[in-house]
Automatic annotation (TrEMBL):
InterPro entries, A to Z: aa-tRNA-synth_II/BPL/LPL, Biotin_CoA_COase_ligase, BPL_C, BPL_LPL_catalytic
NCBIfam families: birA_ligase (TIGR00121)
Family the entry assigns: Belongs to the biotin--protein ligase family.
Boundaries of every BPL/LPL catalytic domain copy: 1-173
Molecular function in Gene Ontology: biotin--[biotin carboxyl-carrier protein] ligase activity
A Gene Ontology cellular-component term: cytoplasm
UniProt entry tagged with the keyword Ligase: yes
Name listed for the protein in its UniProt record: BPL1 ligase
Any Pfam family: BPL_C
Alphabetical keyword list: Ligase
KW 4Fe-4S (keyword) present: no
Length: 245
């Protein structure tokens, strides 16, 4: 990709962001194709993270920080705090726990002692098909609450997301995971949810939180708390299953 080639030719200090109006060649997790119609906020952002830093030692956390930044971008606007936008571990943005509105994809390359991170994030701002979009949630909120919140634009939300992300990274670098987890838990959809491990007949576990490395922690009856790695498991939220791949 163009941004993948560009990122090594720019001065260190300069962040780079590409904003796509429409994307047809996108890549998703596990080689899925990521198509993005008009009305979606879609960007790829390049950041550098020193290996010997809080975040450099916990790179899986980046996708959580980006998901949180997208939700915060909307919910930190005065008046928009109760728009039901949430994070789903490890890398999705949801309307309540009902419907996916966006996602995050992170690629990292370690060069000497610096991680070069390409962050792709996309979320549906203004397109009611095929799911629901952020502006639909605002219309719904206005109807239910009698408010007159204005619709938001993709450009504004991309800019806000990047600004919030920079702040979250600074906090993480200074304080580690505990600096950001309270905010993350405030917006995530999994608190106290029950899941089955393996298949629908599998052992019951409760989601506890995420560990210091960004992996999901589950508490299985009689077994204590264990961490579940996202790359080795798929998390099927609709059926509340954690399935080894």
């Amino acid at each position: 990709s163009l941004i993948g080639r560009l990122m090594f030719e720019l001065p260190e200090e300069m962040g780079l962001i590409a904003v796509a109006v429409r994307q047809t060649q996108g890549k998703g997790r596990g080689g899925n194709v990521w198509l993005s119609p008009v009305g979606c906020a879609l960007s790829t952002l390049h950041i550098s993270i020193p290996l010997h830093s809080n975040l450099g030692q916990r790179i899986p956390f980046i996708q959580h920080l980006v998901s949180l930044a997208v939700v915060e971008a909307v919910r930190s606007i005065p008046g928009y705090e109760d728009i039901e936008l949430r994070v789903k571990w490890p890398n999705d943005i949801y309307y309540s726990d009902l419907m996916k509105l966006g996602g995050v994809l992170v690629n990292s390359t370690l060069i000497e002692t610096t991680f070069h991170i390409l962050i792709g994030f996309g979320f549906n701002v203004n397109n009611s098909n095929p799911t629901i979009c952020i502006n639909d949630l605002i219309v719904k909120f206005n109807k239910e609450e009698g408010t007159e919140l204005k619709p938001l634009s993709a450009d504004c939300l991309i800019a806000r997301t990047v600004t919030v992300l920079e702040r979250l990274i600074d906090i993480f670098q200074e304080k580690g995971p505990n600096g950001v987890l309270p905010q993350y838990y405030k917006y995530w959809i999994h608190s106290g949810k029950q899941v089955h491990l393996g298949d629908e007949e599998g052992p019951v576990a409760w989601i506890v939180g995420i560990d210091d490395y960004g992996y999901l922690q589950v508490h299985e009856e009689g077994k204590g708390v264990e961490s579940v790695h996202p790359d080795g498991n798929s998390f099927d939220m609709l059926r509340n299953l954690i399935v080894p791949k």
